[in-house]
Amino acid sequence: MSVQVIRQNDKPEWAVIPYETYLQLVEKAEMLEDVHDYDSAKADVERGDDELIPGEVVNAILDGENGIKVWREFRRLSQTDLAKQAGISVPYLSQLETNKRKGSLDVVSAIARVLKVAIEHIVPS
To answer: Within 13 Å of residue 36, how many CA atoms lie on the same side as its CB?
Structure first.
């Protein structure tokens, strides 16, 4: 690799490299960043700070299914269990899951807490 070093006050200030070499370095830097991101995500899962979400859950939400219902079923909770833990009635939860009613911030927060997800994951955008 040919490198031209430009000095200022007898110290290296700039390195000029061929463009093809520059592109290779950028590609390697991006790959290294991807490896670090993967390692970080894997460590988060192993510590229990994050979880792997099956494609079926993601696809269901992207397809417009109700987030509360999708996450409830993924967590293997009945409507009765989720309603009880969130401090609401089963009919109210049913209305939320069928989009017949919108929940208050307190209710949606309680449901998100029980489902162990961020509010954004259960509120339609």
So the answer is: 6
